[in-house]
Amino acid sequence: MRYIDRMNESDKGAYGHVLKYTGVFGGVQGLNVLVSLVRNKFVALLLGPSGMGLVTLFNTTVSFISQSTHFGISTSAVRQLSEYPDDDHPQVIHYVKVVRAWSLLTALLGMLVCIAIGPFLSSTTFAWGDHSLHFILLSPAVGMLAVTGGETAILKARRRLKSLALVQVGSVLTALFMSVPVYYFFGEAGIVPVIVLMAMVTMLLTVRESYRLYPLRLRGAKGILGEGMEMVRLGVAFTLAGIIGTGAEMFIRSWLNVTADLDVLGLYNAGYMITITYAGMVFSAMETDYFPRLSAVNADIEATNETVNKQMEVSLLIISPMLVGLIIFLPVLIPLFFSSKFLPVVAMTQVAVLAMFFKAVTLPPAYITLARGYSVMFLLLESAYFIVFVFLIIFGYERWGLVGTGMAITLANIFDFVMINAVARWRYGYKMSPAVMKYSAIHILIGLLAYFTTITVGGYAYWVFGIGLTLVSTLFSLLILHQKTHLWAALMRRIPLLSRRG
Fold first, then answer.
1. Cβ contacts of residue 380 below 8 Å, gap of 6+?
2. pTM of the predicted model, to two decimals?
3. What value does the mean pLDDT take over residues 104-109?
4. Cα gap 344→479, rounded to integer Å
5. What's the mean pLDDT in 211-219?
6. SS3 for 250?
7. pLDDT, tens digit, for every residue of 374-383?
8. In 3-state terms, the chain is what percent helix, strand and coil (to 5)?
């Protein structure tokens, strides 16, 4: 504690920066998650577990085809467009045309692939009926996702974070007010139209913001596809990693659908979604703020270690109390956000939430590989993780049902944590700081105690122990954040009454 007390103002400012942007982007993502949960509540009531499973199959398939045909432009274009500080630089304006040309080309390619392999997807994804027409009708969604990805890359590269936030919020709100009436009147028949309409709304909102920054210019666009080959080559590894990841998720969902049924698939998806998206509120800051900072110091081992460890500390301190509370309150949250039909997924989700403790200390060092541009290593690490993930999910479900899939998610993330940190230490000289190790040990222990409370304690004792552990985790995080940042001062500035009393 004495070391923390002697921290200089620059250190506190650095921690404060990480905390600020993690909170800002996490807040936007939190609003998106909240609206999405409200929408999922209505969808779950209107369609039930089997309908939710059908939505999952179609959405996963669209994501898989998108990842396979978009050449990683939404990622690689950001790096290309970020090189120039001036928005009006001729090279930036010209490269925007290159990105848009390639986005249009990949949109057409994605649509054709979706139509061509529709019969194959129907036979491999579904155990009954011919759904080829559904995949043909989903092809416009694939094309619009490609256009959206290119325009989003432009906004990210030029640091238009407000525009990105507006697009995200507008998309989820529109999806809420649009999907519920469609599902109410048409039931499962409205699933495909909703997916296409949601893709269209997101594309239109993104294009509107992007075109305000860089209006569409067709003059000089002839023959510029060749100039984007470097961007495409850079995105190949990201594309392959996306194919492997989305393909693994698609395989798992198809396997569950064939091995079990749509109800089980719907339950699994609900548990997986609430686990991953909840944590995503904190992790959303990684791509927008942390990754550029890390890229700027990637050649300096000492600066890289400092940047990574500070991000790990703040991410862990923010997300851990949320995870403990989620474990304890899931029996209340699942019926609230979905319906009582989804109660069988509570046990699975409670054990799966433990995976996010390890995710918090895995993602920051994982970005070192991307910051240094080692795309092949990134691909190998992603491939190894998803191979283990698929194997554990199949093994876990066959042995222990849905609870086994929750255990598999946690074990896969433990494996990822060990692998990523070992590679980061071996290849890049990264060393986890004593502070990260201490905070990780304390918070993971509290998380384990919370989980064991769910399987060993009942009645009033459950809530006493559970709420107590949530408070302990929260107070510990607040104490450390207060010592390392200007947290209290920032809060008091925002609460005039407290400021006057001070």
1. none
2. 0.72
3. 91
4. 37
5. 79
6. helix
7. 778 888 999 9
8. 90, 0, 10
